[in-house]
TrEMBL record:
Residues 11-173 form the Histidine kinase/HSP90-like ATPase domain. The keyword Nucleotide-binding applies. It comes from Aegilops tauschii subsp. strangulata (Goatgrass). NCBIfam families: PRK05218.1 (NF003555). Belongs to the heat shock protein 90 family. SUPFAM superfamilies: ATPase domain of HSP90 chaperone/DNA topoisomerase II/histidine kinase, Ribosomal protein S5 domain 2-like. ATP binds at residues 18, 22, 64, 69, 84-85, 108-113, 163, 356. This is Histidine kinase/HSP90-like ATPase domain-containing protein. Pfam families: HATPase_c_3 (PF13589), HSP90 (PF00183). Keywords: ATP-binding, Chaperone, Nucleotide-binding, Stress response. GO terms for molecular function: ATP binding; ATP hydrolysis activity; ATP-dependent protein folding chaperone; unfolded protein binding. It comes from the Eukaryota.
Length: 543
């Protein structure tokens, strides 16, 4: 707890983002389960989040009508730090301290439920699961290392379903219990929550009321007694009252028109949704129509992904009619070798209770997959065409090996992958070249794309075979990653030029070179010996 509090000290407002995102997760779970079990909503169809503040006492309550927790779930989820988002956070924190990553990372990272203690002395979680008859209250104080669980008995505090968090703020943090403060933070952090978030706000309206004017003496004509006349006048007053106010925009960003969404909004959505701290390298927002209709936003991250065999990538979030379905796929919706690409996909054509089996069998999913892949490649091609060569170099550094894997796994898309590959070359100095660049600088009579594999750049450059091709001015690709050669072998050819390994003994070029070089050397010798005239004939035959 100490570690969390200290590392997040200047960033403590993240507590609200974390707690709202837990509420949103709980609502997502309920909405998803209710598709097959509508009974779950019998205690109220509303799915929303309500935040109330009591500034005099420094208390914030956050109530969601989500899935709630049973007693056991309370113990399992909140009783131990080990299984929570907080644990992941602590792990990253330890790693990042070594790497000395700036505190922005911390601000962007999922900190989890325990962030409530950044600002609270005491936290109470009162929760009712549809699976349980009782409502339970979990309570803990920041100072102590233990918690209590009791049944909720106060009838005033019973909720039909969901979870109510009560934060008893620390003395110095009571400022968070102001409605305007909460509203401002929500605008900042939670604009992409797809459930309505209401805040309890003081409102006012103006009203015209009749009030008595000061009684004035009014002279009357004649000699009668002066009369007192009371005149009425109207006055505008402000009437105050409290009510719930919708605080976020619930229209998902992917349903909006691309022209109307700013780059900042795309980037924010990406960072929020995928827990990333760097802006993406590229994004693509599109709608497909026709046979299958769906909307999607895809992103190429800027952070390196190491493990190309990782199957639990959770990189594509599937929604059906705006309901979050799953992000747990294994190649059904998006090929594994493109798992570094992240994104959301929303379809109206799939059933809400879509299962793994349905996904595997579905023709619709096959079409979606095809389109998504195409769009992903367009997006990557976009980076490679960028004015700034560094952009694609960064991309290649991070994800090059994924594309090489694609050469092996996805024959159908060889045409799209091949132009994106990059290699070292005998004619460029440490700079990577594309196959297009290679083909462009081929000699007119050159038939094939030549390559040589080596353990390192220097060993490839010093290969004995290379010398001959250098002499002829033929460029040679230097393959120093074992995956390079495998991917070229899989591609087989590029623009009708086959790939040829110059170290293979049967390289027919090798023979020519030897004979040519031999003859040229003899000719040179002859020239030096002044046999010019006689050698001319032989020379021209050779050329
Ligand atoms: P994470 O959200 O990454 O799982 P957290 O520390 O934020 O980690 O939360 C831990 C767990 O507590 C959640 O996974 C969830 O099971 C449970 N939980 C937290 N808040 C709620 C809530 N409002 N409704 C239901 N369950 C919740
Ligand atoms: Mg969480």
């Amino acid at each position: 707890m100490d570690l969390i509090v200290h590392s997040l000290y200047s960033n403590k407002e993240v507590f609200l983002r974390e707690l709202v995102s837990n509420a949103s997760d709980a609502l997502d779970k309920l909405r998803y389960l209710s598709v097959t079990d509508p009974d779950l909503l019998k205690d109220g169809p509303e799915l929303d989040i309500r935040i109330q503040t009591d500034k005099d006492n420094g208390i914030i309550t956050i109530t969601d009508s989500g899935i709630g927790m049973t007693r056991q779930e309370l113990v399992d989820s909140l009783g131990t730090i080990a299984s929570s988002g907080t644990a992941k956070f602590l792990k990253t924190l330890k790693e990042s301290q070594e790497a000395n990553v700036d505190s922005n990372l911390i601000g962007q990272f999922g900190v989890g439920f325990y962030s409530a203690f950044l600002v609270s002395d005491k936290v109470a979680v009162s929760t009712k699961s549809p699976k349980s008859e009782q409502q339970y209250v979990w309570e803990a104080e920041a100072e102590s290392n233990s918690y209590t669980i009791r049944e909720e008995t106060d009838p005033e505090k019973l909720i039909p379903r969901g979870t109510r968090l009560t934060l008893y703020l620390k003395r110095d943090d009571k400022g968070f219990a102001h409605p305007e403060r909460i509203q401002k933070l929500l605008k900042n952090y939670s604009q992409f929550v797809s459930f309505p978030i209401y805040t309890w706000q003081e409102k006012g309206f103006t009203k015209e009321v009749e009030v008595d004017e000061d009684p004035a003496e009014v002279k009357t004509e004649g000699d009668g007694e002066p009369k007192k006349e009371v005149k009425k006048k109207t006055k505008t007053v402000v009437e105050k009252y409290w009510d719930w106010e919708l605080t976020n925009e619930t229209q998902p960003i992917w349903l909006r028109t691309p022209k109307e969404v700013s780059t900042e909004e795309y980037n924010e959505f990406y960072k929020k949704t995928f827990n990333e701290y760097l802006d993406p390298l590229a994004s693509s927002h599109f709608t497909t129509e026709g046979e299958v209709e769906f909307r999607s936003i895809l992103y190429v991250p800027a952070t390196k992904k190491e493990d190309i065999t990782d199957r639990k990538t959770k990189n594509i979030r599937l929604y059906v009619k705006r309901v979050f379905i799953s992000d747990d796929f294994d190649g059904e919706l998006f090929p594994r070798y493109l798992s570094f690409v992240k994104g959301v996909v929303d379809s109206n054509d799939l059933p809400l209770n879509v299962s793994r089996e349905i996904l595997q069998e579905s023709r619709i999913v096959r079409i979606m997959r095809k389109r998504l892949v195409r769009k992903a490649f367009d997006m990557i091609l976009g980076i490679s065409c960028s004015e700034n060569r560094d952009d694609y170099e960064a991309f290649w550094e991070n994800y090059g090996k994924f594309l090489k894997l694609g050469c092996m796994e996805d024959k159908e898309n060889h045409k799209r992958i091949a132009p994106l590959l990059r290699f070292f070359s005998s004619q460029s100095n440490e700079e990577l070249i594309s196959l297009d660049e290679y083909v462009e600088s081929m000699k007119p009579e050159q038939k094939a794309i030549y390559y040589i594999a080596g353990d390192s750049l220097s060993s490839a450059k010093n290969a004995p075979f290379l010398e001959k091709l250098n002499e002829m001015g033929y460029e040679v690709l230097l393959l120093i990653d074992p995956m390079d050669e495998v991917s070229l072998t899989n591609l087989n050819s590029y623009k009708d030029k086959s790939f040829v390994d110059i170290s293979k003994e049967d390289l027919d070029l090798g023979m020519h070179v030897n004979i040519r070089t031999l003859f040229l050397n003899i000719l040179l010798l002859l020239t030096e010996l002044n046999f010019e005239n006689r050698s001319c004939g032989a020379y021209s035959i050779l050329m």
